[in-house]
Amino acid sequence: MLTLVRQFFSRRKPVDDDQLLRLFWNRAELKREFAKGQLERERMIDQLRALEGSALRAQQRLDQLEGLLADPERAASAAVFFQLRGIWAYGKRRLSRLARDLGFRQQEREGQREAGRFEEHRQAALTAIEQRLVPLEERRALLESELIAVRARRFERTGFWNYFARRRLDAEQATLMAAGKSVDEQIERYERARSEKLKDKAAVPDAIGVDGKRLVNLSVIALAQELLLVFSEHEVAAQARDASLRQVGEAVYGSSQACRDLSQKIEGVLRKVEGMDELAGRVRRRAEYLHLIASYRRDSDTSPAPDTLTSIPVELTAEGDPRPVKGGPEVPVNVLADEYWDIYSVLLN
Asked: Which terminus of the chain is more solvent-facing, meaning fewer CB atoms within 10 Å of its CB: N or C?
């Protein structure tokens, strides 16, 4: 009886051990899943708090705006404020569009230039391979003709009295065959290199180089300066920058009539900018001028040092290298230092 009990428990033990291991693994897996669930819960709580904060701030701004609109004069100032904010956003959009278009063109040009360099190097390599193949193929043809001649002479040497002549011709034939095999191997190696070189493709750069980014950025800065010059009429540019740094509740532009007059002036200047057919040419000419005077603190910098662009000459010479017109007016504004049109968010870096 005791023996049967021992056999029963000895058979049950491995099963119990397997069950315990499975329970342990399941418990560990559940703990990992629970920890992941806790982290996800905390992340969602943080997101909810952030959304609640954003909603609260939006409601506060809405309440503030409703209070402003209840007062006619303050409502007029608020309208001008948002109109100036629109001018600021308009300038930023113009800069962004120019940076995007020029960046695409510059990357395309650099890709074509890289493809041209690659093709030039590949043709040079193929020419070098051909120069090595020509004498090898001539050598192979010569060895084949000599081998044919030796085999013909060997075929003619019959009879026992030509025994030593046949041995000499056999050795000569073996030498020619070994030389031919060596030449064939060299030709095969060069032909394989030529085939691989023909399969190679130019690597298209996925980003613009430092010089290309500098060219794009100088054009963007030139446009920023031109926009500032035009919007300087009635001090629209300065007021737009001021509006970008303030809240609507801080905006005061005078009486309702003064606000209406200012609004009309802003609209007039904006129409003037949109109707400037010569703006593209002026930006191109100014970018050339900036290229002459801009300096960079490091070789890796893509934006010029702000202290090299402390003022804006209103007019540039039309012929030769662009220079400020002698005795012409200058506007003492630094679009980089003052970050006009949020320019640093547009410049390529």
From this structure: N
